[in-house]
Design a protein that fits this description.
The structure is a single chain. The longest helix has 16 residues. The strands form two sheets. This protein has a six-stranded mixed sheet, sandwiched between helices. Strands 2-1-4-5 form a four-stranded antiparallel sheet, with helices on one face. The two termini are about 30 Å apart. It contains ten helices and ten strands. The chain is an alpha/beta fold. The C terminus is likely disordered. The chain is about 35% helix and about 25% strand. Helix 3 packs parallel to helix 6.
């Protein structure tokens, strides 16, 4: 299986702080790779560096066989990388429909794509003409992911999509991500809900202090409470 994304020796500084300290990470094509670790170890910075929001100080980012380390963010998006930030990144004063139209650089989403979005997130069809700011927190998160689905993407970078959501909404979110994977997408997913990580992940990479300290099958990590404790100071079995 080929890797859709390969990061080697990635260093990223933010102001005077050294955040990424030589990250090596591979994301297999058509799979869900979980990026795990305690808060503040560099997971979000990794996603933002891949997307070009932060510039890499050193190292390389290869996407779909191309070195994109120096590409601007719009070029990465046009090449098929979708980013769902933790802060959702929606326009609250625009309608759900307007948010979706703006998210698709190639033009308004076609009917077939919209039907897939509505099947994954039925409330968005109900509130299609409503301002995004009037949606609940869970519905806003649905819209955030739907915006990344507005046109076909090869790779999705998704930052904590279930954070702060009620269990029923978490289940809906997990189902939508599973559907994305079923459509052949590759996903690099930062997630603190370990039940979701266990259910969705094919592979896992654990970060600590700006580096990847373990990689392997998600099932292997999920089955080994001692490994979880050693890597992250917690046990999934307690979640």
């Amino acid at each position: 299986m080929s890797d859709v994304l390969r990061i080697e020796g990635l260093f990223t500084d933010i102001a005077q702080y050294h955040i990424l300290e030589g990250v090596d990470l591979a994301v297999p094509r058509g799979q869900v790779t979980m990026l795990l670790g305690r808060n503040g170890v560099g997971k979000t910075t990794t996603l933002k560096t891949v997307m070009g929001h932060w510039a890499a100080k050193a190292g390389s980012i290869r996407y779909d066989g191309q070195d994109i380390t120096a590409w601007p963010t719009p070029a990465r998006a046009r090449a098929g990388i979708g980013f769902v930030p933790e802060d959702m990144g929606i326009f609250t004063d625009l309608t759900v429909e307007e948010n979706m139209v703006l998210a698709a650089a190639s033009g308004p989403p076609d009917a077939a794509r919209l039907e897939r979005v509505f099947a994954a997130f039925p409330p968005l069809k109900t509130f299609w003409k409503s301002e995004a700011g009037t949606l609940s927190g869970g519905q806003k998160q649905m819209l955030s992911i739907a915006r990344a689905m507005a046109e076909e993407r090869v790779l999705y970078l998704i930052d904590e999509p279930t954070k702060g959501l009620a269990p029923a909404i978490v289940s809906t979110m997990a189902g939508a991500l599973r559907e994305l994977k079923g459509q052949g997408a590759s996903i690099l997913l930062v997630e603190q809900n370990f039940a979701v990580a266990k259910a969705l992940g094919d592979h896992a990479a654990v970060m600590d202090d700006g580096r990847i300290v373990w990689t392997g099958a998600m099932a292997e990590l999920a089955a080994d409470a001692g490994l979880q404790e050693r890597l992250m100071g917690l046990s999934m079995e307690a979640e």
